[in-house]
Amino acid sequence: QVHVEESGGGLVQVGGSLRLSCAASGSRFSINTTAWYRQSPGKQRELVAGISSTGTTDYADSVKGRFSISKDNAKNTVYLQMNSLKPEDTAVYLCNLGSYYPTGSYLEVRGQGIVVTVSL
Questions:
Q1: Tell me, what's the pLDDT at 93?
Q2: pLDDT tens digits for range 55-67
Q3: What are phi and psi of 89, to 5 degrees?
Q4: C-alpha span between 64 and 15 (Å, rounded)
Q5: If you compute the radius of gyration of the chain from its CA atoms, what whole number of angstroms results?
Q6: CA atoms of 35 and 5, how far apart (whole Å)
Q7: d(Cα 33, Cα 89) in Å, to the nearest integer?
Q8: Interatomic CA distance for residues 43 and 79, integer angstroms
């Protein structure tokens, strides 16, 4: 089994920063692809940022220049650094991790979600 643990969320004031972490362990799971999504009440789930298997990063227009996604292979952990936070960034953030195995199979797992609240 693969265990996913998210951390780093919480309450922050407008203009503040938070760093979300998402770590995977078990079943020889090595992160190859990753994405952070967010879900707000009454809104569709939004893809915030991602890293492809080739290392290419991509961001939603709404967070470009403010958020940064990164991956630490040694720790099998991905991060989402969020700066200049706005009230509209308030959401539940979920990490999605993918791993390619030597057999050719691909496994995706997702975290439970972590709450980020940006207050005025």
A1: 98
A2: 999 999 999 999 9
A3: -85, -10
A4: 15
A5: 14
A6: 14
A7: 23
A8: 24
